[in-house]
Amino acid sequence: MRGTPKTISLRRRLICDLMHASMGVPFVSLARSLNIRPLLEARADAAAPAGWAAMFVKAFALVAKDEPILRTVYVKWPWPALYELPKSVATVAIARVDDGEECVLPQRIAGPEDLSLAAIDAEIRRGKTAPIEDVPMFRKIMRATRLPLPLRRLSWAVGLNLGRQRGNWFGSFGVSSVAAYGGGELHPITPGPFVLSYGLVESDQTIHVVIRWDHRVTDAAPIARVLTRLEQVLNTEIAAELRAAGSKPVRVVRT
C-alpha cells in the first residue's frame, strides 16, 4: 500500500528521545483508590482551588520530604549507584498544541514541598499557556532536541547518569494524567525513578492513583506505605492549605 512519508517533527522527536531513554528501566507499578473526602470538601469550598496536578505534586513532595527514597535516582556514571537528591524536583507532563500539533512537554518544578499550592498551580498553568520560548524548561529541552542524534544521545546520557545533573534535567518524580480528557488508568513511560498518575474522582469520593517506579531504587512495600501517606497528606496538609486560602463568598438572598 502506498502511503505518504512524513518528517518527524521536533515535538515528536522529543518523545522518541524520551522513549529511547526509558528503554531498559525495570518499572513496576502499584495502583490504589484513595479516599479523599476531606480534600474534596475543602476544595469545593475554596474560592480559587488549585488544580489536581498541583495538589498531587505538592502532596508527593511533602511525603518525599520524610521519605528520602522518593528523592533517590539510579545513575550509571562513573559507576552504577543510587544518588539521593537534597529536595524533590517534579516534572509535570503538559499537554498543549504547538504550531497546530498536539504535543507533551515537561514542566520542571523545583522544591515543590516549599512552594504554595498557588505558586505550583501558576507554574503548571504557565506551561499550558505561555509561548514555548518563554518557559525555561521547554526552551532548554527543545534546544537539546534540535541537536544532531549523536549529540542528543550524549546530552540525555549526561542528564540521566550524573547525579548532580539528574534533578536539573529530569527531576526526582513525574506527574502525568489524562483525567482532563475523560480519565483512564495511565501507565506512562519515563526514565524514572517515580511517576504518579491519577484518574477521575469517583462517586464514592475516591480517586484512583498509580505509582510506577524503578525497581532498582526501591521495592513494593515502601511504595504501599507511600500511597497510605499520600492519602493522609492530601486530606490534611493539602486540604488545610486550601481552607487557609479562603472560602467562596456567601451569597445573601434577600426576601
Explain how this protein is built.
- By secondary structure, this protein is an alpha/beta fold.
- It has a single domain, classed as Chloramphenicol acetyltransferase-like domain (Chloramphenicol Acetyltransferase).
- The protein is 41% helix and 22% strand.
- The strands form 2 sheets. A 6-stranded mixed β-sheet has the order 1-8-7-6-4-5, sandwiched between helices.
- The longest helix is centred in the C-terminal third of the chain and has 25 residues, at 220-244.
CATH topology, which one?
Chloramphenicol Acetyltransferase
The spatial strand order of the largest sheet comes to 1-8-7-6-4-5
Q: How many angstroms does the end-to-end distance come to?
A: 73 Å
- Uncertain segments: none
**Computed CA radius of gyration, to the nearest angstrom:** 19 Å
At the fourth level of CATH, the homologous superfamily is Chloramphenicol acetyltransferase-like domain
Category by helix and strand content: alpha/beta
Secondary structure: number of strands: 8
Question: Which strand-content bin applies to the residues?
Answer: 15-25%
| CATH architecture descriptor | 2-Layer Sandwich
Considering DSSP H and I runs of 4 or more, what fraction of the residues is helical?
40-55%
Structural shape = globular
CATH class: Alpha Beta
Order of helices and strands: HEHHEEEEHHHHEEEH
Main beta-sheet strand count, sense and barrel state:
6 strands, mixed
**SS field, number of helical segments:** 8
The total tally of domains equals 1
Mean pLDDT, to the nearest integer, reads 93
